[in-house]
Write a structure and sequence with these properties.
- Strand 1 and strand 2 form a beta hairpin.
- The chain has four helices and six strands; from the N terminus they run αββββαββαα.
- A six-stranded antiparallel beta sheet has the order 1-2-3-4-6-5.
- It has a single domain, classed as Aspartate Aminotransferase, domain 1, CATH 3.90.1150.
- It has 122 residues and is of the alpha+beta class.
Length: 122
């Protein structure tokens, strides 16, 4: 996947929004809460940060090109230094899981207004 393809995938998730924050970072949100960040600019690859589950965090951070996300690792966020660190299908699954975990943590009222089930599935 390319960063443009990642952006299209993230924006296609139900009720997902994207804002530019912290300079030039593309921040993807559900219900105002961040679930993925594409950040940086210039010639270097910008990196992709997302929330992982407890077990996924341990597995992912053992792989080449994936590190604990700076400032966010204690909450089990990872940063892909290159998109090739994961297969496209795996990357999409992890991004969707991040989206679902963040959606599940929204208030009951906000989830209801967005049409998100109790399990977090949007």
């Amino acid at each position: 996947m390319t960063y443009n393809e990642v952006g299209k995938f993230l924006k296609a998730l139900k009720h997902a929004t994207m804002v530019v924050q912290w300079g030039d970072h593309h921040v993807y949100k559900i219900g105002g809460k961040v679930f993925a960040i594409v950040g940086g600019s210039g010639d270097a690859e910008p990196g992709l940060t997302f929330k992982a589950g407890e077990t996924s965090f341990e597995i992912l951070t053992q792989q080449k090109g994936i590190i604990p996300a700076p400032y966010m690792a204690r909450n089990k966020w990872v940063k892909l230094e290159t998109l090739s660190a994961l297969k496209d299908s795996e990357l999409k699954a992890y991004l969707k899981r991040s989206y679902d975990m963040i959606a599940a943590g929204l208030t009951k009222k906000l989830r209801a207004s967005l049409g998100i089930s109790e399990a977090g599935e949007a």
